[in-house]
Amino acid sequence: MKLDGFGLFVNDMAAMIRFYRDVLGFEIKEGENTSNVYLVKDGTLFLLYGRKDFENMTRRKYEYLQGLNGHFEIALYVDTFEEEDEEYRKAIAAGAGSVLAPTTEPWGQRTCYISDPEGNLIEIGSFNRPFLR
Length: 133
Prior knowledge:
four-stranded mixed β-sheet; 2 domains; 7 strands; single chain; Signal recognition particle alu RNA binding heterodimer, srp9/1; 2,3-Dihydroxybiphenyl 1,2-Dioxygenase, domain 1; 133 residues; alpha/beta
């Protein structure tokens, strides 16, 4: 079994599309009135799926966290510390919530955290070198 991707269940599809497209630069082609978005970002499937649509499909009602979601994070990588600081500044200026300002950690990573409009945590980090997989 291989990891194909991950998805977020969302309440306000239009706001989430605008955030991931306009603030973080994801290439989303669907309109803001869609019920789901499938896109590939750096080789990974990323999905935005309307909560009500998922509930209708599975015929179940779910409970969702409110406020900051501390159950997972989405991690984004940039090659340099300067890029990390700049991406943080741009995201905050464009409306992302600030969770942790850029900080250089004892293990050598510079990291920061922002949140999307529905409180999902997004890390932007760098080890000051190109990404190695």
